[in-house]
Write a structure and sequence with these properties.
The chain has ten helices and four strands. It is α+β, with helices and mostly antiparallel strands. It has two domains: 78 residues, Glutaredoxin, CATH 3.40.30; 106 residues, Glutathione S-transferase Yfyf (Class Pi), Chain A, domain 2. The chain starts with a strand and ends with a helix. The structure holds glutathione. Glutathione binds next to loops.
Length: 214
Amino acid sequence: MYRLYWAEGTASFAPQAVLEEAGLAYELVRIDTTRGEHSKPDYLAINPAGRVPALELPDGAILTESAAISLYLAERHGLEEIAPAVMDPDRGTFLRWLFYLAVTLQEAYKPFYYPERWSADPGDRPRIRARATERIIECWQPVEAHLAANGPYHLGERFSLADIFVLMNSTWHVTPEQLVERFPAVGRCIALASERPVIARCLAQQKRVSVGRL
Ligand SMILES: N[C@@H](CCC(=O)N[C@@H](CS)C(=O)NCC(=O)O)C(=O)O
């Protein structure tokens, strides 16, 4: 059985959504990041980077990195509809956006949430966060342009893992209503993705945990 080390409001959302899309049995292990459990020895023994998510495979091996875990699971379990296979004409566009969302957009949120990693001087924090806020918007712009021209999903009418990553990134936005107001094509993609039963279930679970009702 898979074991997903998971925390609400984190990059564990996408791997969980893929496990659910595939209908796989898995154990969900909550890492309470609000109490710093991701930095404690028990979790560091699983993921020495101290980041969530991590996936334990049935043979005991550990995978980290949300995009790698998600793609691995989708390909391993034949979810070719949401992860176009090697010879699929949509493969290139799919990989382009999956990587962009995981590597560029996702990372743009880091200085906002962890400004202390960009400067040891606490006085620098407001400036780092202000610039991160601008940078986040810059990084959403190409996503909006692509979805406006090719949407509603990244692959047109075909829902994919890339759309799960857009939704996940949007949950990190401090003012999601402003994000969708500014980027309507992103808003439409997120709204459609959220209506899918599996995604709705994962979102509801995040909410339940956030208000202390796991
Ligand atoms: N690139 C990694 C990023 C993982 C990551 O940074 N997760 C955040 C939560 S979204 C985390 O564990 N933060 C704790 C920390 O950085 O100390 C992935 O996509 O899995």
